[in-house]
Amino acid sequence: MFPTIAILSWPVVVTILFQKLKRPAAVAISIIAAYLLLPVEGGIDLPLLPPIDKNTVAVVAALFIAWQMSRTDIKAQVLDGWLPRHPGLRLLIIIAVASAMMTVVLNGDQVTYGTVVLPGLRLYDAFSAMMGAALMLLPLILARKYLAHPEQHILLLSILCIAGLCYSLLALYEVRMSPQLNRMVYGFFPHSWAQHLRGGGFRPIVFLSHGLQLAIFFTGTIIAACALMRIYAEKQRILYLCAALWLFMTLVLAKSIGALAIALLLVPIAALLSVRLQILAAAILAILVVSYPLSRGAGWVPIDRIQSIATQIDPQRGSSLGTRLYHEEAMLEKASARPLFGWGRWGRSRIYDENGRDVSIADGYWAISIGVGGWVKFLSEFLILGGAVVLLAIRQRTYNIGIETSALALIVAGWMVDLLPNSALTPLLWLVAGALWGRVELGKIAQTADEPETQEVTPRVRYSRQSHKNPVPDRQLTYARAKPEPQSRKH
To answer: How confident is the model at residue 73 (pLDDT cuts 50, 70, 90)?
Structure first.
């Protein structure tokens, strides 16, 4: 009962945040805090509608309150309109929502596996699936509008860093005392206890659904701390360096090899390389993630070699990885029977033996997405997530991209990589991706106040940006929408 009360009470928290804070901070904190603090069980499952849970209640409440308050919004620092102006993003959103309906339309047949009979999907399921797809994208819509500007990117990095530091205290408690906080507060344990016993100790979970989600969250917060270390002045730089080291220590104690590997790859890039190399690395990773299923099908991914390396590191985890890869192959083979729009929900995409027992192990979100919604669902979702990263990499010089934006691109890329072995597609990933799409729409940012202004210009804002070698004095930025970019013209 208490988990449901906590979820249904969250709109009150969101209302207070919007009354006390500026719109960008209220949007980011309401969604991030709900993800970190609300229970994974509870809520209400309404007929015809997706369930009201921790992932939907915060974003719906934030959207409704922001829309109600939009009449008093100051137009500076907020993009016009609620729907994306970029034609590519609009098309991908339409495809993502419409493909949910097509999946239902093409899966009206009944399927039988041994003694198990799975009914066909109905019009009822089509409406629910389309609503679910739309709700999934709402964090992106909000972030695109309220978190597009560089100052708002710095704000988002700061919120992620502070949230990581606060959450690390809870995680370290569970490292020492065992994962008990969710049971103590909400009265249940959200996953398998055996999966949170690692290395002679405990893997923390706090209020998330799995310890792996906690670990990859810390990976993003470390990148955020490294970026802030380079943005701010000397005294603050030391504080953010200490924060990054503390968060990295917490990540190590979280006992997730995958998240730690992603951090070891991306944290040095965030801390040492230039903006151009950061955004390029993020774009390359995003492209590799999108192309991974195609590479798997073509046999270009050295599966045996990867499993051998994992076995050398930890035989138990190497065996687990081998099992996971085997089941991914089986699910891809079944998905090939209905490649465009998949098999639909309610277990239709899973693997069953001759007795009707579900024998599939589906961990990677990409495999789940292809099985449920086909290649159309997978490509539309992953191109939305990574498309802005690639566009910003192509236009890095033209748009005057800063460290605050390249760091968010690295976070998106790292979290996308985690979707290959795991299924944690969270509202936080959509939120950060939406901030990057907003930056794409914002377009060119002039470096000086003397640069010609092309169209509507917002008030000038001062902030300090520093490289890792030579400090750059405070500079004055003027935001101008560039005429050559059709998606950034004023409507």
So the answer is: low
H helix intervals, 178-256: 181-186, 211-231, 234-253
- Structure-token pair, residue 39: 């229970």
At residue 458, what are phi and psi to the nearest 5 degrees? -90, 165
Rounded to 10 deg, the angle between the 303-313 and 315-335 helix axes is 150
99: which residues sit within 8 A by CB, 6+ positions away?
Answer: 133, 341, 373, 374, 376, 377, 380
- The reported pLDDT for the residue numbered 444 is 78
The Cα 95–Cα 101 span in angstroms is: 10
pLDDT of residue 460: 35
| Strands, sheet with 461-463, edge to edge from the N-terminal-most edge strand | 445-446, 475-479, 461-463
pLDDT digits (tens, 9 = 90+) for 378-429: 999 999 999 999 999 999 989 999 999 999 999 999 999 999 988 889 999 9
pTM of the model: 0.87
Kindly list the distances between the CA atom of residue 206 and the CA atoms of 59, 210, 414, in Å, as whole numbers in the listed order: 21, 9, 22
Give residue-wise pLDDT tens across range 149-196.
Answer: 999 999 999 999 999 999 999 999 999 998 999 999 998 888 777 777
What's the DSSP call for residue 120?
Answer: P
Q: Are 266 and 413 in contact (CB under 8 A)?
A: yes
Domain ranges of the chain: 1-78, 443-491
pLDDT at 206: 93
β-sheet bridge partners, residue 461:
477
**Which pairs count as long-range contacts for 86-89, CB under 8 Å and 24+ apart, including other chains?**
86/437, 86/440, 86/441, 86/487, 87/486, 87/487, 88/387, 89/384, 89/387, 89/388, 89/437, 89/440
Rounded alpha-carbon distances, angstroms, from residue 434 to 60, 296, 430: 16, 29, 6
What span, in angstroms and rounded, lies between the C-alpha atoms of 218 and 243? 11
Please name the residues in contact with 406: beta carbons below 8 A apart, sequence gap of 6 or more.
227, 275, 278, 279, 282, 392
